[in-house]
Amino acid sequence: MLDAALAVAAEALQLGELPIAAVVFAGDELIAKAYTQERALNRRLVHAELLALTDADHQLRWQKRDKLLRMATTLEPCLMCLGAAATLGVSAIYYGLESPGDGAAGIAATWQPATADLPGYKMPVMAGGINRAKCRELFQRFCETAPDNGIRRWAQTLAGPAAAS
After folding, report:
1. What is the mean pLDDT of residues 7-11?
2. pLDDT tens-digit profile of 125-163?
3. Is the confidence at residue 59, as pLDDT, over 80?
4. Average pLDDT of the residues in 16-27
5. Among the listed residues 53, 49, 63, the one whose alpha carbon sits nearest the alpha carbon of residue 120
6. Non-local CB neighbours of 162 within 8 Å, separated by 6+ positions
């Protein structure tokens, strides 16, 4: 699954966007994919996960699902994207690179929302570090060409020491 997200992240990188991409699967079928589009859309709430989940939601609507929804993303999702995944009923999130400053995996591990009245709403199981080196390498490539600004400095924290020099 994460290989599909890595391919979308490589496309984003070619367009000058951060190499953050997400894919959503219903069973074994890829139903949505997206990359973060902050540069192209000049907006902040265009995270890869949120865009992919919104696309999946448009396709699925309220229909009964017989296949588990799963998401793979190159970067640990933030709290907003984790909440969107829980709302859509994603059962598992697989991510490549940890995001210590704003990742929400720790919250997912401990949060127990009261869901008795919300069928389908559940906190996804999260697994990280999948293809970590490949995800890190994409961030390193981003840092090589990105202008020196806040986004690049944040990306450098994910890319590791080699990107900071």
Report:
1. 98
2. 999 999 999 999 999 999 999 999 999 999 999 998 755
3. yes
4. 96
5. 63
6. 140
pLDDT greater than 80 at residue 16 = yes
> Does the annotation count 49 as an active-site position?
yes
Q: Which of 28, 15, 26, 77 is nearest to 51 (CA)?
A: 77
Structure tokens at 122: 């559940």
Residue burial 44-80, b: 16+ Cβ < 10 Å; e: rest = eebbbbbbbbbbbbeebeeeeeeeebbbbbbbbbbee
d(CA 32, CA 108): 22
Q: Which of 11, 17, 29, 49 is catalytic?
A: 49
